[in-house]
Amino acid sequence: MGKLVVLMFVAFVDMVGSSMILPLIPYYATRMGATGLAVGVILAAFSLGQLVSAPAWGRFSDRHGRRPAILLGLALSAISYVLFAFSNFPAMLLVFRLVQGIGGGTVGVLQAYVADSMSQDDRAKSLGWLSAATSLGVVIGPAFGSFLTIAWGRRAPGLAAAALCVAIGAFAWQYLQESTDEAARLSSAARRPRAGRDALARVVTHSNEPASRLIWIYAIGMGAFYGTSQLLPLVLSSRFGVTEQTVGWFFMYFGLMGVIIRTLLLGPAVNRLKEARVARWGLVLLAAGLSLTALSTNYLELFTAFTLMPLGTAFLFPCITALLSRVVPKNDRGLQMGVQQTYGGISRVAFPIAAGAMVDYFGAGVPFMVAGVLVLFTLALTSSLEGLVSAAPT
Fold this sequence. Notes:
Blueprint: H1 2-21, H2 25-31, H3 36-64, H4 66-85, H5 90-103, H6 107-117, H7 123-152, H8 156-175, H9 182-189, H10 195-205, H11 210-229, H12 232-240, H13 247-264, H14 266-295, H15 299-327, H16 333-362, H17 366-377, H18 385-391
Helix pairs in contact: 1-7, 1-8, 2-3, 3-4, 3-5, 3-6, 3-9, 3-16, 4-5, 4-6, 4-8, 6-16, 7-13, 7-14, 7-15, 10-16, 11-15, 11-16, 11-17, 13-15, 14-15, 14-17
């Protein structure tokens, strides 16, 4: 638990810095003369950097340890925020986002660290607490960034985010202990150089294996949720008259619900139902929330959807990741969780593009309904999952 608390604090402060910057990027980019398309490319560069770096981070952490990977990721994030602070033209913002995304590719390493440090029965709950810490950072960060801009100018948020990364890096250097044992490290060091590419391909070529099925569930759920949540302002604006001045309150409720559910409900649910059944409930609740968002015409329906979606994601993603950690060998956890993040990154790039096209042709609600149906279909991938997990090597 001591390791988890330290890691949660590291993840929380890192996410505060990241979320301070994100809402400001479109304003800075347009002021520098960027077009709408250029702004979209700049924003997407983070996911691209995260996408290409996640498997490499996983291999690095398997060979050299989780702690060095986390510290190096924080250092890259600090560099990226300095670039943001002194960016004077759109190309510099693009470089900043790429470097930030590469530094942020350590998400799978954080998850592997939790899997290494906690018992099998506690992994889903611990991953939920880690996710709650990052969600709390998302709630606090944007307001902090706006305040710094008003108080000290446009460079202040980037420099403050860099200072936070340096400070939390020093804290992690002092207090974050290594989680990977020497035997696992030596075993992974002997892995073939093409292990990352082979692991990525195996998800497609051996899609019925437990690890592959879990990665597909994660990727589809991640894309369905994050690909559509970016379009929520369109629904709020067209149906409820929500403006830029009031939309933040809706997202604050959304984020707070995620924190509350992960801290108060996830642990008891896993204790009673175990990870596989909780993941199934997560799929059903997420699908219901997405579909209700598509159909909502009053505030009762809207806030019911805004409760179901974070409830579904809180149940789904930590449990899927915990199950993945149980069906792969210990020395492959970092690699496989990096692969999971890669497929999640692909879906976070593909789903928003498809959802945007559907908005243009069919209206703002249709992407949510399509996403809900896709999530519901992934229930088929959870069949006999308990038996496959039980038969997996420890």
